[in-house]
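Morning. Coffee machine broken again, so started the prediction first thing and wrote up yesterday's gels while waiting. Chain of 387 residues, entered below exactly as on the submission form.
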Amino acid sequence: MPLGRKLRYGMVGGGPGAFIGAVHRMAAALDSTMELVAGAFSSSPERSRAQGAELGLDPERVYDSFADMAAIEAQRSDKIDFVSIVTPNHMHFPAAKVFLEAGFHVVCDKPMTNTLEDAETLCHLARDKGAVFALTHNYTGYPMVKQARAMVQDGRLGAVRKIVVEYPQGWLATPLEREGHKQASWRTDPKRAGAGALGDIGSHADNLARYITGLELESLCADVTTFVEGRPIDDDVNMLVHYKGGARGVLHASQVSIGEENNLNIRVHGTSGSLQWFQEHPNWLYFRSLSGPEHVYKRGNDYLAEAARLNSRLPSGHPEAFLEAFANIYVNAGRTIAASLCGENPSAHDLDFPSVQDGARGVHFILTALRSGREHAWVDASYTPPS
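Came back before lunch.
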């Protein structure tokens, strides 16, 4: 870390009972390169203070609102270096905008915003402020996902012809939101979530396909469905995708598939080979060629691509998974932030995290798929975010 000290960060959201905030805190702490020193953990000042006390923070740096936090931290000599935003989706934009305007770097949960206008505003702000903006599409942090990407880039698959990516879950097969379930309540509220299964997990599937193959969307045809009666948001989506360059794709995301837990998986088929990766078994990557036996690549081995090796922490045979992948987003973004603070150039490997432009691409994907579902038609999905 070029700073010679730990990065200081604050958190917006992640208060009592929140799932993803605790995951972000554990991931950020994993490599001992950053420390949580401030927070506005809830829209309720009382709950924010309770979370700050539980985390052992200085009460003076536990704020009643994220606006107060940005304004006061900006004046401190020991101010935070970046903010981590882990609120429900509808608050990502106002929080990110305030902290970017105050001159802070940002790590934000996905999807970045609920509207494309807001997403593009953040792109412009990050550029104008010279801010690092990392989006936590954490599945790109898995070492074997980075291995898959390297194999596609190296031409091991030939030209990509077909991508099949799916993300089925079953936890919303019943109306949990009517039972007071906190996560279900906001994730099925269109005012807070924006989109349902499509935004929550379909965006991960789209991002994973784009990250591994480097291909951009050209057009798509989506069947967007709500199966649970009375639910005002989608809980299942199936789509056909055309990628620029001629590849074809199938994307499926569902939160009503009973028996499924977190079964994100992807298959990429090319002219000379194919690969397959399962998030629930993340330490293996399967490669098949036109001739010869199937190859199984395993995490932690010296034969892997440099990016896969650099994003592993343990020797082979010791499993690494979700938290470590999340931490890879934080550590790479953290190195980039530290380099920015020191006036240095980050390495290509440090820059290996989803950016604000990836966030805009994700928002465009969600909105395009929703439009296709409403119109029951193929729609143009091509998009270039502001640079």
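The chain has twelve helices and 14 strands. Going to sketch it on the whiteboard this afternoon.
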